[in-house]
Amino acid sequence: MAFSGLDIYKLLPKTNCRECGFATCLAFAMQLAKKNVPIDKCPSISAEAKAILESAALPPIKLITIGSGENKLDLGNETVMFRHEEKFRSPCGLGIIIDDTSNDREIKEKIGKINQLKFERVGQVLEVNCLALKHSGGQGRFESAVKLLLENTSLPLVFMNNEPKSLESACEIAKDKRPLIYCATKDNLAVFAGIAGRFNLPLVVSDADLEKMQDLVSELKNRGLSDLVLDTGRKNIADKLWDLTQIRRQALKKSNRLLGFPSLAIAENADPYEEAMQACAYIAKYAGIVLISGISSWETLSILTLRQNIYTDPQKPLQIEPKLYTVGSAGRESPVLVTTNFSLSYYTVLGEVEASKIPSYILSVDTEGMSVLTAWAAEKFNAETITLSLNKSGVKDIVNHKRVIIPGYVAVMSGDLQEQSGFNIIVGPKEAAGLPTFLKNLN
Questions:
Q1: Pair type for strands 64-66 and 73-75
Q2: Least confident stretch, 158-167, 208-217, 312-321, 340-349
């Protein structure tokens, strides 16, 4: 739990020495509570008080990193139960399970398909974050499959292997890639802790009971392991969601450090619709990483789209640079459409304009990331702001005509906009889906 300024002040020496740069210890404590200064600025604080404050400053859910380099996956570091309280910080990782019983050709083909699962949505690239290799084959097969993965993908890896010797060999091969080891239980705790400790790798700890889970975590921490991920095993959706929620609540509301780690959930299911539903449920509440087996584009896109929506900062809407954009080989007779700089609005309009195959210009007006109706209600998408954007974009010098198309939902401003801008205002369709037909019939 974060300390208030007064809580921090009680732990300070109260000498008012000013060596920290502040007139009083209380002033320093207030700035420390706001995280504007480091605790090291106080030269006289006791080691005990420093340790208490540093511990309190740690995130309630530890940040765990899987993989290395540009494709590393960060889990945890969350501070709130609900997104509207602040924001969710580390998007849930989506991983795809590959079984080592597949032959080399099948594994390569599956990796190739997974590498193609990249989608652009509202200016962001959505993609799978890791691969999980499950050991089901014969002796030596897991290690050879690991080598195959390392040759064909740069994604972080999860090793799902309960055979210590095979797992240790695989970790030796891939130690520089920092794979996640799955999983330590009460029956293999010492062995798996030894492997994770030797290679300094993150470790999944698993038990169906949260009380027993805490005992395992406590023992692992005593062994010097702190990069942990929690899993309560495979359960029905209701029970799994209960576990995930309780882990999050205990960490955030009760400052329970033994449950202050990201969680893992497996949604592997032969029915892709059931699998997608489970994965989405676990992402919403509150898995740090979800593993599935399906590689269909529709399934992956639906899961990634939901994740993107949940992990978008509600205080900072996705927005693009407000300016004039060219679609296709637009020329001096091409139509000019106006929308806001809210990413979803712009990319929706862009997609429909591209579908029309009519080269056009799209003027994105700075509305601080608000959608059309929201910005209009907030008086950020009106005759004045659109006129200012038209003048700033230099569109008068780019096209030969003086026609501008505005969204149908704000038709009420057309007269005022025409008077202020000097352009002939054309009211377009209310929904972007109507743009292809509208543009084709414009002349």
A1: antiparallel
A2: 312-321
Tokens in use for 390?
Answer: 């038209």
Mean predicted confidence (pLDDT) in 8-14:
88
Contacts for 413 with CB less than 8 Å, ≥ 6 apart: 376, 382, 383, 386, 406
What's the one-letter identity of residue 171? Answer: C
Helices 141-152 and 164-174 meet at what angle, rounded to 10?
Answer: 20
Q: What is the pTM of this model?
A: 0.77
The single residue listed with the structure tokens 């739990």 is 1
CB 383 within 8 A of CB 420: yes
Bridge-based pairing of strands 360-365 and 424-427 is: unpaired
Cα 84 from Cα 86, distance rounded (Å): 5
Question: Is it the case that residue 84 has pLDDT exceeding 90?
Answer: no
Distance CA(364)–CA(249), nearest Å, equals 42
Three state DSSP letters for 23-59:
CCHHHHHHHHHCCCCCHHHCCCCCHHHHHHHHHHHCC
Q: How many CB atoms lie within 10 A of CB 151?
A: 9
Give the C-alpha separation, 74 to 381, whole Å. 38
